[in-house]
Specification:
Layout lengths: L1 E5 L6 H8 L6 E4 H11 L2 H12 L5 H11 L9 E4 L5 H14 L5 E6 L2 H10 E4 L7 E3 L18 E2 L6 H15 L1 H8 L3 E5 L3 H15 L1
Parallel strand pairs: 1-3, 1-4, 2-3, 4-8
Antiparallel strand pairs: 5-6, 5-7
Helix pairs in contact: 1-9, 2-3, 4-5
The protein binds adenosine-5'-diphosphate (ADP) and zinc ion (ZN).
Length: about 220
């Protein structure tokens, strides 16, 4: 499959993307994960991106496009991809459209995950993440806690609250989403690619996406 996942922070893009990778050989591409890994490694990309991410601001479009232009041409993308957290702005979406047409790649559709605002806020403030960059399992202090010692159930690393999960950064991320990313819903509607799902359960959403894919084949 070749799809884009749209949705506010906390809408469950990461969870849905992971579940979808079990459906066929498509790879999950999360710009957030790529950037966090770069920050951890302290490489040049990480140094440039880290300051924006801490505040909950978007990383400049030019930097994101450099990463994605390269990433989408790697071999593992040949079997399909699930874009999680990209594109995030109209310029990114326009550049992606041009890039895909240059590469001769056609998207199946764009998934818009619709989740009520109060659910989003609750999820973001209770979310915790495994600190191990190659694991990054997501936990929730209420519904899916780590071990009583605060360790990851998968890899045993400490489970932490991300810098961008402080209350201030969360509000900034939501405001940035409304201003910069929500307009992509209209953009893809206009392109005839949009398919919205009310997404309270990731499993139901994944089934809905699979049905929609099957109906198009
Ligand atoms: P969220 O949970 O807010 O959806 P992500 O893990 O997708 O978070 O991204 C974390 C941070 O990385 C964002 O707040 C932003 O600073 C940066 N980022 C990720 N993807 C993009 C993108 N496509 N364009 C600009 N910045 C991005
Ligand atoms: Zn872990």
């Amino acid at each position: 499959m070749r799809i884009i996942l749209l949705g506010a922070p906390g809408a469950g893009k990461g969870t849905v993307a992971k579940l979808l990778t079990e459906y066929d050989e498509s790879v999950q591409i999360s710009t957030g994960d790529i950037l966090r890994k770069a920050v951890k490694e302290g490489n040049e990309l990480g140094k440039k991106a880290g300051q924006y991410m801490e505040r909950g601001d978007l990383v400049p479009d030019s930097l994101i496009m450099q990463i994605m232009e390269h990433r989408l041409q790697e071999e593992d993308c040949g079997k399909g991809f699930i874009l999680d957290g990209f594109p995030r702005t109209i310029p990114q979406a326009e550049e992606l459209r041009d890039l895909l047409s240059r590469l001769g790649i056609k998207l199946d559709f764009v998934v818009n995950l619709e989740v009520p605002k109060d659910v989003i806020l609750d999820r973001l403030t209770t979310r915790r993440t495994c600190a191990n960059p190659s694991c990054q399992e997501i936990y929730n202090v209420k519904s899916n806690p780590p071990t009583p010692e605060g360790k990851c159930r998968k890899c045993g690393s400490p489970v932490i609250q991300r810098d961008d999960e402080t209350e201030e950064a969360i509000f900034n991320r939501l405001e940035t989403y409304n201003r910069k990313t929500a307009p992509l819903i209209n953009f893809y509607e206009h392109e005839g690619l949009l398919k919205s799902f009310e997404s309270l359960s990731s499993n139901d959403t994944v089934r809905g996406i699979q049905r929609h894919l099957a109906s198009k084949r």
